[in-house]
Amino acid sequence: MSRIVYxxxxxxxxxxxxxxxxxxxxxxxxxxxxxxxxxxxxxxxYAGHLARLKxxxxxxxxxxxxxxxxxxxxxxxxxxxxxxxxxLIYLQISRGAADRDFLFAADMAPSIVMFTQKKNILxxxxxxxxxxxxxxxxxxxxxxxxxxxxxxxxxxxxxEAERAGADDAFLVEDGxxxxxxxxxxxxxxxxxxxxTRHLSNALLxxxxxASVLSLAKEVALQVEERAFTVLEACDAAxxxxxxxxxxxxxxxxxxxxxxxxxxxGPISQKLLEIYIKDRMASAI
Length: 284
Ligand code: PDD
Description:
The chain is of the alpha+beta class. The protein has helices spanning 24-28, 46-59, 68-81, 126-129, 152-163, 207-215, 230-234, 266-281; strands at 4-7, 10-13, 31-39, 42-43, 86-94, 111-118, 131-137, 168-173, 176-180, 184-188, 193-196, 222-225, 238-243, 247-254, 257-258. Strands 7, 8, 9, 10, 11, 12, 13, 14 and 15 form a nine-stranded mixed beta sheet that branches. Strands 2-1-6-5-3-4 form a six-stranded antiparallel beta sheet.
């Protein structure tokens, strides 16, 4: 079945979904996005994604042409129209279309696109094995807290990691890990502290990160929000990443360093379990 995609006020089969070649999202990466997980037709962590969407738009002075109710309505409608039991909703808002110019008018009409990706996100085979990662230099711009569609560097680094036989890349700036290519990175120290980089413009403020931190006390972990080095990660009891698509994903190797015994650790596994339980209970 072809997906039904939302494009600028219309619901169309994916083959007919089109935006202008003059769209600034296409020409300048002048667009922001959100990815929200769906389980049992319900939205996971929706309030967090909505709040970040608004922050990203505000940072770029792109207006949101919907009320909260209308936007929630669009999410519900795309789930219903695509019979999306489990998977992801991708929402992108660009500044809109105009003749190519580095300057843009203040009153442009934004372009809005939404589509779904069906997948059984409650059965990720990588949760059992964990990921291997390669460290790579950080090369993105300095406003990573804005969820823009400027994903080329991350995409290139993920390709390079794959060519090197790894699953993902950790981006490193001045010896400290900023993020993985599309997720936040966390370590559990041998004395049970959950160390995660503090919020700043160096990283995206992950919604899953925030939820997992709020659950840390349930596994008797003390949270420490600060930058940590590659060396600390290699020496950690556990390393894991978080994102709306992989939830809590263990990392078992960083470059040549095997983390602990090379298998997903008990704390990451427990955090994954309680994250899913807790977030499904609050899904809308
Ligand atoms: N990526 N950091 C980066 C650079 C990301 O792209 C993402 C999410 C995260 C995790 O944020 P959250 O927990 O809110 O999903 C961190 C999404 C899933 C993507 O681009 O597909």
